[in-house]
Every structure is written in C-alpha cells, then in structure tokens.
Amino acid sequence: MLLLLDILTTAAILFVVSVGLLAIFGVLKIINFAHGAWLTIGAYCAVVSVRLGLNPWAGLPIAFVVGALLGGVAELFIIRPLYRRPLDAILATWGLGIVIGQLITLAFGRDVQLIPNLMSSTVRVLSVDYSVYRLFMLFAALAIGALFALTIEGTRLGLSARAVIMNETLARSLGIDTDRVRLTTFMIGAGLAALAGVLLTPLTSVDPNMGVAWLIGAFMLVMVADTSYLALAAACLIFSGAQVLVSTFVSPVLGGISIAVLAALVLRINPRGFSRA
Amino acid sequence: MTAKLFAASAVSLLLATAAQAADSGPIVIGVPVGLSGANSVVAPSVVQEAQLAVDEINAAGGVLGRKLQLEVADDASGAAGAQKAFDSLIYQKKVDALISMETSAARNAGLPAVGKGRVPYIYTSFYEGHSCNKYMYVDAWVPEQQVPPIVDNFAKDKGAKTYFLIGSDYAFGRGMLGFTRKYVEKTGGKIVGEEYLPMDGADWTPILSKLKDAKPDAIITSTAGGAPNVTLTKQMRAAGIDLPYANLAVDEGTAKSMGADATGIYLSASYVTGIDSPENKKFLDAANKKFGADLKTPNDLSVPEYEAVYLYKLAVEKAGSTDPAKVIEAMPTVSFTGPRGAIIMDKQHHAPLTMYLGQVQSDGAVKVAATFKDVDPGEQCPNLK
Fold first, then answer.
1. Residue A265 burial (10 A CB sphere; 0-12, 13-18, 19+)
2. Interface predicted TM-score (ipTM)
3. Which CATH architecture has domain B143-269?
4. Is B215 at the interface with chain A, CB within 8 A?
C-alpha cells in the first residue's frame, strides 16, 4: 500500500513539475532549459508572499501571474528571435536560467529560505499513515491536468495551439496569429512552472539552485512524451513506478538514475516516445 | 649617460622594494571555501569569522610586526573547483598558509597542491577522519569524537537498540555512517537499515518508506549540509516520522532555517552558541559588534576557522618566521583558548575536543543536554608523528 501511494504521489509530483515544460515544447518546439529557474522563481514568490504576511496559499496565484509575466518578457526579448534556431534556443534558455539563479542569489542570498508548510500532518489511508501533502499533490496534479486538457480541447486558444503543433505554415495561412499563440503558450508554460515551484516548497529546500535537481527529470519525461499531455501522464506513472521500485528494492542511488536510463531506452526503441504508442 | 644611470637606479630601487615586501608585507592566508554549491549556506559565516580573527590580530599589532591578510577563493564545494582554487592561491597569490573549511571532496582534490607547494594548511571542517598529510593539521572533530556522545545518550536515555542510518552518497556521508555502524554494533546495538541518496537527489520518499517498515528505535542521518539536509528533514516530518533523530550534519544556522521541522533534532558538536565561558562571550560580543545584523550565526564550522587563524599566528610566532618547515614543526605545540576551550592539535595532527550533545528547541536555539570533556580523536594518522 505504502509502495502504491509512493508511486502515485511521485508520479503526481513529476507531472506537476514537467507539465509547464511540455506546454512550451509542444507548441514552440524548443526546450526551455530555464524551466528550473522558473520553478525557483515560483518558490521565491511563495517566500515573498509569506514575508508580506499573506496566507501561504496566496503564493499559488501570485507565482502563476509573476511566472507568466516574466515568461512573456523572456519570450518577447530572448526566445522570439530563436524559433528557427532550436539549438541556439537551448543555449539561450540555459544561460537565462543561470542569470535568473544569480539574480535570485543577489536579492535573497544563497541561504535556504524558510517557509511555513502548507500542510504538515499525516492521514491514515487503509493501513498506513501517509503525508497529507503528498496526497494533496495527487489532487493538484489531477486538477492541473484537467485544466490543461480543457484548455487544449475546449478553448479557442487550445484549438489554435493544436493547429500550430500540426502545421504551423497552414495555421498561419488560415489567419491564426501564430506569434500570439506562441507568446500565450510560453506565458502559460512559465506560469505553470512557477506554480509547480510553490507546490514543491513543502517537499524540498528553497534555495537559488533548487530547480536544477528537477529540470533533468522533467526534460527526460517531456522528451518521451513529445507533445501529448496524456503521454506525459503515462510516462510519469511508468517512470515514477520504476524509480520507486528500484529505490526500494535495489538502491536509491540507482533509483535516482532510473528515469534517465528508461528515457534513453524508450527513445532508442521508439523515437516518438509514448505519444504514438 | 644620465638615462642609463636613472634606469639602473630605478631597477635597484624596484629590487629593494620587492625584497622589503617579502619581509614586512602582509602575511597572506588563503581561504578556499565553498561560496557556491553545497557549502554555500555555511561558507559566509566561515569567511566572517576568519575576517574577525584577522582584524583582531591586526588591531593588536599583527604577527611578528606584520599584518595578516585574507585571500578568499571559491572552490564551488567540489573537487574541480578546489583544484583551481588551491592552484591559484598557492601558485599565483603565493599565500603563506591555507586555513579553511571545505567538503571532503574539495580537501582531497586540493591536498596534492598543498604538498607540492609546501604550504601549511589548517583544515577547520569536521570530517570523516583519517586524512593525513605532512602539511595539514585539523582543529575540528572526527567521527570518533562526534558519534559516541549520541549513541551512548540514545542507548542510556531512550533505551534505543535499533538504528536506521540515512546519508548523502559522498565521502563524508558514508564515512560518518560507516563509523556509526561500527560503534553501534560494538556497543551492542543493531543497524536495521542504511540508505544513501546522491547529493543532488531531491526525493527521499522510498528511503522514508523503508524506514517506516524497519521500525527502528532511533534515526541517525549524515547528509551534505544545507539543501539536502533541509529536504530530508522536511520530507521526514511530512511523512509523520517522530522518532529520536540525531543529525550529524546540522548546525544551529541550518536548524534555524528549517523552522518547526528541526524541533527535537539531536546534534553533537564541539561548538554551540550557548557555551557558557568568558572566551565564548567575548567572541560573540566581538562578532556582534563587527557584523551587527549581517552576522551569520557562528557555528561548528566557522568557530574552528576563527581559532585556526589564532593557532597559525601562535605557530608563526613560535617558529619566528613564516618558513613552512618551521611553522609545521611549531603547529602541534601551540595551544589557543578560544570559544570552544583550549585547542591544541597534538594528536597525530588532530585535536582533542570537548563535545556537546544539544537538542534543537522550538525557537531554533540549541539546548545543551550533555557535555563530554576532551574527547580524544583516536588513531587518525599513526604514520605522522
């Protein structure tokens, strides 16, 4: 039971962390290596809102808005000229991530920041005591996933985004303002990353480098999932299952690399990953 | 003719100043330290305390009539950065001594340059023990000094027989817990689990689930300082684990930054701010006066740095010069009474230390639960005299 809960909640955390990266990769076809920095921005939004005396939960909407606005700025000035040069975009976003990390260090110092936990108790699930917050992450992942699905399947923006994913030239010739779709998508992706950063604060230390640890895992998952959020959910479940099982029965050190190894294997066998499987 | 004469005199003047600089210029102390990376949380306090010691010594007239000067270099808390930091301090800045708290990986990477450059080196970080070099002295604790107070206390007061060990996967983590396992088994206890996560790992969930299954009487952890320590403790508390919990890598500053999660953690240290001695009071007053609100809480990593600067000063004075061979010879014979008490590095390049078993209170302060006088570091470097 404990094992099952561990797998489900780990999958939920991975999904929350990587969905913003997927949104950007799906429509813009570039890997946003500054994703880790946006996670960090989100966590520091929580720090600031607590310092301002707001309810810790207020960090969630604040982080989404701040993350999205900063994402918009980054898209306009840094990402936009690089759509035709995806390799340069990797370099630019990686560099942007470093710059943001240093700016946060300048403003807040390198120290670990203290935030009161959003929830800290445990609850009895069947036969085991389990962390309420990890169960809440499961709910958060489902909520974010559902909202994401609604946006993609049920709104004008989602329709345009899907058109851009399928055939951008055709979409533009049909009168879709692809520049605006890209800007909006980047803002949503960045906002989701910042939101994930707030959701991570009760699980991890808040310091200027906190995003880096999560970036590689998210990157691997998105590589495997390609552009589909359903594939991302599946990848999260399978990979977190592998990670938890290897960590529990073999060694946590090997468990830590199981996502990377599995992603490489999947892409070797099927270069399209899970999206057409 | 005049031009030639002028040039010649200029050259001789230059030579004279250079020779003079070597004699009466400042004595330069290199401080390679992890300003970035895993040690970045604690490094600022180490630099502050080094600066405080240097300023105090200079205000009192310096060493052999010369001023002390600090040269700080970032070693990025790791091997690659340490090689660069040590090389630049030893070969370019030509430091007279190195005094620093570093990760074990950084220390091991820097030692070859220390041997080649023949620079006296005082290592001021607690570490896993048994690192031996002719030029290196250590004024901080090793497992033989830190672990027994915890295990003895848990066995006596909590009746603990079974232990679960958790660490970061690196030299310090494995070294500390390796010794803990030996000591627990020697004193009749049992280890029911020993697990490690890579230093950049962020998810301790599977390890915590194993811990719950193993149902130990007590937990002892040894992670990298700062971020991994905070992450592990947060997740452990969120999982509702409330056993006697000793943390071999926590200091008062980190405990404060963990907030409520740190309450109840046991730590074993050679320095806590609550030590009741005139030397500690004087030291804290001086630190508060110098840094005011910017003061990083003095801790078990920064106070040894402060004392090491004084130990180096005494060794240079006894040797009568900064000549490395003479300073190295004088090093184990000088004693300095600082915030932690009288420190003398006369046990195979290590120092007997008074250890304090503390428990973190709900306001983040550390209350001393027991004191262990002059704990011996044991056989660290039997091949060094």
1. exposed
2. 0.81
3. 3-Layer(aba) Sandwich (3.40)
4. no
